[in-house]
Amino acid sequence: MRHLLSTRDLSRGEGITILDVAEGMAEVADREVRKLPALRGKTVVNLFFEDSTRTRISFEAAAKRLSADVINFSAKGSSVSKGESLKDTAQTLAAIGADAVVIRHGASGAPRVLADSGWIDAPVINAGDGTHEHPTQALLDAFTIRRRLHGNTARGRDLEGVSVTIVGDILHSRVARSNAWLLTTLGASVTFVAPATLLPIGIENWPVTVLYDLEAALGAHPDVVMMLRIQGERMHAAYFPNAREYSRIWGLDDARLALLAADTMVMHPGPMNRGLEISAGAADSPRSTVLEQVANGVSIRMAVLYLMLSGEGGK
Amino acid sequence: MPARTVLQQADITRALTRISHEILESNRGPDNLVVLGIPTRGVVLASRISEMLAGISGTPVPTGALDVTMFRDDLGRNPTRVPSPTQMPAGGIDGKTVVLVDDVLYSGRTIRAALDAIGSIGRPAIVRLATLIDRGHRELPIRPDFVGKNLPSAQNERINVHLLEIDGDEFVTIEEASA
After folding, report:
1. Inter-chain contact B75–A38, Cβ cutoff 8 Å?
2. Is the CB of A155 inside 8 Å of chain B's CB atoms?
3. Residue B33, φ and ψ in degrees, nearest 5
């Protein structure tokens, strides 16, 4: 694995390897010394052109737990606001000696451009690009599902037979895309539920089932319900009449929560709009995995950094 | 040169039995003992030794697995390794007498990594080392406390340890590595 740009590139075996390595990383969180020396002397650059709380903190914590040095870069307050191009920024990082670049960018495909450019000879990890992909989020979601289902015996398993229903703003969601590819690669069946205005063109070619009725989808008793955030910052047109109507038809409220089996997982990639796509009751219920997802994110990102930076390939 | 068998299954069992007796002798009983195996085959040997210790002394001895991958000094020189699980016994290792178990002791670098790994998990009172085969060629000041068999070898020779639980058959062979 040279770069991690898309979950589409991952085979089932590679996906399971990442999840298994992450299991080992999760053990470290319970130790007296929560640090491993595996990436001592490596430098990881977090290149964030878009706002982020948990992804950036999570990558930073992951790199530091592996003893790597971390340089955080955010577009705000950098020379990007003076008009510096991605190329010049990348070459600056290469000159500083970055061993890996974690990039989040508002433009879909920016990590691919960086990886293929030759501007910098370091592995590139996509931490979310526009409305394209967010691979580490999908990996941590798969990891969270597998851990909840199998607990201590999760190692080596795939997600064969697991049903996952993803609800909400599919159109703008890189999380939905990455999950659709990864979860189906791992053997799960994925259903999208969304208003027609929030589904991308060409959805019929995706390996997913599409439904337009949330009650019916929840009535089918999926193992996992994943609610997506309404991405106000990317909505420049009227996709639905107003927030109240969206919430009433497409939100996971307390009444719909009651339709679900007791062991159904309620997931949300965060940040949540409480009261819009998910009620506080659902977000805080024992079915909710929101905080587990955050904790597991560190383990997954440690696994990805370790697999990409150790070994001969990692120089 | 074809592979030459150095230990048969019965020899391995006898060696492990003797090691178990020696562990109990040096520890003056089973108190405070924790047996930790280094993956992959060290874990199997550790659980066998632990059973033997329990059989001889009548007291169960906590066993665990200690993965040392993350602590190795050659991570950048080899293809990426996928770590194995680390499992610590419920009682932990603080203040205990830890017996590390591995199949073959060679350069000593794995054991150095294991000592670092132990240090990040807790602080045992004593750490001892048991190994089925000691083949020499140490690169670090490390020595075993309990040895199944000393097997002088050339550096271009390979030692293969097969154990029932992992390989389906059981023996130790030595052969010249094909260049």
Report:
1. yes
2. yes
3. -80, 140
